[in-house]
Amino acid sequence: MSTDRIKRAIRLGWDEMSASYQATTRISLHDVHYAPLCPGERELNIIGEVRGKRTLELACGAAQNSIALAKCGARPTALDMSPRQLAHAKTLIARESAPVDLLQSDMERLTMFTDGCFDLVISCFGLEFLPNPDACLRECFRVLKDDGLLVISTVHPLTAFEWDADAKALWVTDYFNPPIEVWEEPTDSAEQKGLTFFRGFQEIFNLLVSAGFQVERIVEPAPYDAQSASETDGKKTPYGGAYWESDRERLSKVPFAIVYKARKPA
What we know:
With about 270 residues, the chain is α/β, with parallel strands linked by helices. The chain has helices at about 5-25, 40-45, 65-70, 85-95, 135-145, 200-210, 240-245, 250-255; strands at about 25, 55-60, 75-80, 100-105, 120-125, 145-155, 160-165, 170, 180, 195, 215-220, 240, 255-265.
């Protein structure tokens, strides 16, 4: 099966979902988000100082993270394969007067960039949509400067399994062979639906090391509790909304995301 067909179906699925997703999901333009209902960069301090650094965001959606990085003094480029997601990004960038360059492209193929041109590559919820993450990680390594940083937030492998709301427990049927999620979003092809790939810690770690990276930190963000997440307490997750609030009980017991911080050796 051609991976281009899979990626095309994922692009069409995101085009279909984009308007609803952007309308119902609250995403900060002032703090980098890593996981729903969880603290962002201001508290987790995964990236650190970005002033003056050239950054690349992969699978940027509406580029909220790149806008937040620009407000911290970075020089961001943001990339996504969905034109409708990028249309939302253009609107936000214009509204915020944020200096973010946008590109429509496949994150497995970064041939438009020269070697060693970025200080930071970041992707939040993009790796799980790649049929061939190895190609993407090798491209990330190539476009990063020596001592450059890669930060990837992707779905936690336990996200693949069903939550039993009555038992308040997760049914992990076969961790070593997680299911692949088949999307319900319509496309113009009956032959291929969009897919989400769930990958274990070992697989992602080995892919990063194989690409040449040194893994420095792994974070499984835990959500704020409902009280501390309220605006009256002065805390507000950079990534939330009604959909995520309805899933708060599960997210408070099982991590939704895992963040990998890796560096290209100097």
